[in-house]
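Hi everyone,

Forwarding the result from last night's run.
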Amino acid sequence: MEQKMRKKLLELLSRNGFMSGEKIAEQLGVSRTAVWKQINTLKEMGYKITSVKNKGYHLESRPDIPYPEEVCPKLNTKIIGKNLYYFKTLSSTNLYAKELINKGAEEGTVVVADTQTKGKGRKNREWFSPSGGLWFSVILYPEKLQPNKSMLLTMAASIAVVEAIKTVTETESKIKWPNDVLINNKKVCGILTELDAELDKINHAIIGIGINVNNELKKDLKEKATTLRNEVGTKVPRVKLLKTILKHLDENYAELLKGKNDVVRKKWIQYSKIVGKKITVKDENTVIKGVVEKVDEEGYLILQTKEGKKTRILSGDIEYTV
């Protein structure tokens, strides 16, 4: 209820220069005391609001923090981002998303945290998630998508990240199979898609996305990872970036729901530039080298080894070889 009031209050302040507490109270149908309380809450959240006697309140600036009040208005998506939960700290946005699913969360619900204490990547690897990055999860119920094609969800998300980075920062990035986004061969984003599925149906999917935006990196990560701020040379607006990712993900997900899997797959191939590349795949105790012949309909790599054998790569860490 209070969040809805803050949203309406911000809409009023955005449309007007100065607005009196009396007029705001009248428009919102609440008391002037309630308005004063919400104004103070917004100030604590980082909104710069000035008050002048006989003139009222004026919104001078908004914080670059992915609050629902900042992300959801004018998002204009069909499914993704209608509901958004923001937290200063969470153990993991994916874990919280699971809790929301158990409570009946709507499809497209987004969970964002400024920091994660137990963020994780593939194979339960730790994902360093300090303040200043974008750490979020999206809840989906893709019942029309067969479980064997769930890789397409990760593809849809990685495409959205690449397109959003280009739109917001004018910087080119590249997808690295299966779930990373790179800039200048350094990791800037990782994606973890977790499923609850049966043989012929996906009950739910949680797409966890972690992007190094304006955050600091640990020393031991700097050789293989980067941040958007480092690459662009200036702070990157996180709210704008998140909104743009959600819009692109919404569009890509709509293609999957319409059965247009090839649209997503071909875009992914374009942004990964992996077909025709020599790679080494390491998965537990197995090492396979070869040339990527194609990406199949389910999103897996078809690798041709120098012995002429074709191998379907379902998982593993890849390295490009000369």
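The chain has a mean pLDDT of 93.

Cheers,
N.
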